[in-house]
Amino acid sequence: MPRTSKVALTFTVTRNGESRALALSGRDAWALSRLISAGAKGVTPITEPGPRWSGYVHNLRRTGLSIETRPERHGGPFPGTHARYVLHDDVRRADPDGGGANGERAR
């Protein structure tokens, strides 16, 4: 089966009164949309299942986004730690339909 091309989503990042466009596609765009929707509470791989959250966050940080990683403990039959990721930039979905992130603003 042939691979389908990924559709790029455009986001607007505003920091210190300066705005810039950021085009992302695939899971990176999905992850940023989830971070925007989560706001200050952030996301974890438990609340927003995804196979490679650390990889998505790494890619997003390489674009210049400020994303905090907070380690959290969890119990259960396999106790340990997991990460909570919190977006610290003002980011909005720039596409006219505002889909995915519902036009929400982070922080």
Please outline what is shown here.
The chain is 21% helix and 34% strand. With 107 residues, it is of the alpha+beta class.
- What can be said about the biggest beta sheet? 3 strands, antiparallel
SSE pattern: EEHHEEE
Unreliable stretches (pLDDT < 50, length at least 5) are 99-107
Report the oligomer.
Answer: single chain
Alpha carbon gyration radius: 15 Å
Mean pLDDT metric: 87
Widest β-sheet, arrangement of strands: 2-1-5
Q: Proportion of β residues?
A: 25-35%
Span of the ends, CA to CA: 41 Å
Total number of β-strand segments? Answer: 5
- Report the helical percentage: 10-25%
Dominant shape: globular
Which structural category do the helix and sheet elements fall into? Answer: alpha+beta
Count of DSSP H/I helices: 2
List keywords for this structure.
107 residues; single chain; three-stranded antiparallel sheet
Your description of this structure?
With 107 residues, the protein is an alpha+beta fold. It is 21% helix and 34% strand. It has 2 helices and 5 strands, in the order E-E-H-H-E-E-E. The chain has helices at residues 26-38, 53-62, and strands spanning 8-15, 18-25, 67-74, 80-87, 90-93. Strands 2-1-5 form a 3-stranded antiparallel β-sheet. The model is unreliable at 99-107 (pLDDT under 50).
